[in-house]
Write a structure and sequence with these properties.
Elements (H helix, E strand, L loop, with lengths): L1 H12 L21 H4 L3 E3 L6 E7 L4 H19 L4 E7 L4 H11 L6 H10 L1 H4 L5 H11 L4 H8 L2 H18 L6 E4 L2 E3 L4 H11 L2
Parallel strand pairs: 2-3
Antiparallel strand pairs: 1-3, 2-4, 4-5
Length: 207
């Protein structure tokens, strides 16, 4: 039953596009898009850090926004910036606008990706809960340095959208991810959300 429910949700996510691709060539056009780079690992922290955390998130998830506002800065300060932990971001879109926003973020260079995720989380209420999410996403894309044509082409790139959905499927099928945010600690799913819970979890790992 759970698989059936997930498949229905994915079918809805991949329903008829809500955007229309713009005319003219773009660096993000489907025939010239570097899909491997866009779908590559997005991570913050020392690549050689002893401990790996993975966050499965949806950009329209209020709990994810709260995590990024309250817990993430403390984790970053104590564990990530000090080289003890690296954090990998993995998409788990819960609706179509989360999917489009994830695609938008992945069109940026990897080094600018974490800042874009923080921006979209911080401004979530101003773009995810409005009548015209597209206009607000395009505005956020411009703040990050993407022109409107490139941002639209990015959010309508079928192969990129399919790749993000595939990432969600792996999370669901391999790691039993069913809600966001969810976390893996060195490959195992963990029940943690607050900084105090992560502090207790990571304290022994990085000692």
């Amino acid at each position: 039953m759970r698989r059936r429910t997930l498949n229905l949700a994915l079918a809805w996510l991949l329903a008829a596009p809500v955007l229309t691709a713009v005319g003219g060539r773009s660096v993000f056009a489907q025939d010239s898009f570097d899909l491997e780079t866009a779908l590559g690992t997005r991570m913050i922290g020392d690549p050689d850090a002893k401990v790996t955390l993975v966050e499965y998130f949806s950009l329209t998830c209020p709990h994810c926004a709260l995590f990024h506002a309250e817990t993430y800065p403390k984790l970053k300060e104590k564990y990530i910036d000090t080289g003890k932990v690296k954090l990998e971001f993995r998409d788990f879109p819960l609706d179509q606008w989360a999917l489009r926003a994830a695609a938008l973020a992945r069109c940026l260079p990897a080094k600018r990706y974490p800042a874009m995720i923080s921006l979209l989380m911080e401004k979530q209420a101003s773009w995810a809960n409005v009548a015209d999410p597209l206009s607000e996403l395009l505005r956020n894309g411009e703040l990050a340095g993407l022109d409107r044509d490139s941002a639209k082409a990015c959010m309508t790139n079928d192969k990129l959208l399919d790749g993000i959905i595939a990432m969600r499927l792996v999370g669901s099928q391999k790691y039993d991810i069913s809600s966001t945010p969810s976390f893996l600690h060195d490959g195992a799913k963990v029940d943690a959300y607050t900084f105090e819970e992560f502090d207790e979890l990571l304290g022994g790992s990085v000692a």
